[in-house]
Amino acid sequence: MEHLLTLVQAYAAARGAAERHRALLECLVDDEDGFLASKIAEYELAYTTYHTQLMTAYDELTRTTMRAVPDERLPVCTWQTGTVEVRAVLTDHSRSVRVRYTPAQAIAAGTALVACGALADEQTGGTLTPILPAFPATDLHAESTAAGAPSENRSRS
Description:
The chain is built from four helices and four strands, in the order H-H-E-E-E-E-H-H. By secondary structure, it is of the alpha+beta class. Strands 1, 2, 3 and 4 form a four-stranded antiparallel sheet that branches. Helix 1 packs antiparallel against helix 2 (35-62). The longest helix has 28 residues, at 35-62.
């Protein structure tokens, strides 16, 4: 348990240092030598590492795997700039689970999910077609002909 407390303190110190340096950088007109930017990167790497170690230690402490299902009320949140948050809840609704992605990570994860969905769709006989219909849903050529636009098949007089 003492190891866990040490990790929490190290994580909090690194996170606080990164935020302080970020606030200083925002107050300055320039950071020509890049000192503050390099310190921010250094502390962000440190707190990310400590966070990973902390979560690993927590998992080892609890020795459980959480199984979650998508949150029906708010499955995806984007109100924080530069963050896409995917939410889930435990099956008994006793605890929520959040995964935060950068926009690039969210695109990669979403693309992987669509690819997995397409593969599953093919194997199960086409269940995605009603959810993701072909785009555009209507024939654009038929619309332009109906609107009075000349058709390639009409004879010229």
